[in-house]
């Protein structure tokens, strides 16, 4: 069975990217740099190759965390800080990722390869990057394995889900004055650089003390003197609330202009809190201890499995967008997460021990199996969708080639010229 129904394939040819970028940083600072950067790439390099190269930088960053901070995956939980220079490489890798992510669309237009496949590929890489950066940024902020990291992941994935939901209902991608792909990434790069200079423990500094406001009674009376890292989490919650309001405003406006019901799209937000509730219920199970998984080496595999399931969920949303198909309400991996959450909470629900996760060793096996199944599910989705789109449109994924009307493979730009000449 394919992911794209036969009747929806024709909609792939109707797809056209639409986007709005209101970021001042993008317009006046990064935009000119991106415009210059794309000219350095030969036109024989496919845009998806650039996108994948950017994701590889993030994967290398993630690999250095595992290699230079093995305690993060041990019972000690990051008791030993990795070398300071690692954080500078994380900043460089993320900056490269952002740069490549920004120019892949420009390269697509230069090479005549713009289309729904690039949209799918770009969003897929962004979804993976979101989870990995939360883990890396959590380590840089000295949050490590904690509920703060869980909250950060939920908020970050929530912002990504909102953007995808908004694009599905409005038909275009909105990047506001403060967006994750621009300002959000720049802020994380700043965190990495600061940690490189001052170390992760710097972020434990009480915020009011850092601002020299800890002696101002009217402020200390109402504002707790929490660490800079916790203040950053509070700021993230404000950003999420702002994104919810602005995203719905854009959807409401689009639906009113289209003379459609502006409130029904709100129902399509429900799948995300459902998935978050399942994961949090699993993490907060009373078996062994309330934070057993959070405080164990299983924390990273659990978050990675969650991130892969999320990437599959938003991937299907983008696919529905480019094929003009109904909104995907359900994801099969929910069943697995539901089993994990219910089993772990049997003590709380019916007063008996879990049937599957009844020992630390069984919990370890089950979570690693969750990671494996999530990876298989997502990679299968990616491979199959790429295969269906490339076969129908007659294009390649990682090379600048198209099939002309005779079925022969040619450079994309050459095909565009052939078709233009025939129409003329």
Automatic annotation (TrEMBL):
It is found in: Endomembrane system. One of its GO terms (molecular function) is diacylglycerol cholinephosphotransferase activity. Keywords: Membrane, Transferase, Transmembrane, Transmembrane helix. Its cofactor is Mg(2+). Pathway: Phospholipid metabolism; phosphatidylcholine biosynthesis; phosphatidylcholine from phosphocholine: step 2/2. The chain crosses the membrane at residues 44-68, 184-203, 231-251, 266-285, 292-312, 332-351, 363-381. Its EC number is 2.7.8.2. It catalyses: CDP-N,N-dimethylethanolamine + a 1,2-diacyl-sn-glycerol = a 1,2-diacyl-sn-glycero-3-phospho-N,N-dimethylethanolamine + CMP + H(+). Its main location: membrane. It is an enzyme of class 2 (transferase). Belongs to the CDP-alcohol phosphatidyltransferase class-I family. PANTHER family: BB IN A BOXCAR, ISOFORM C (PTHR10414:SF37), ETHANOLAMINEPHOSPHOTRANSFERASE (PTHR10414). This is diacylglycerol cholinephosphotransferase. It comes from Antrodiella citrinella.
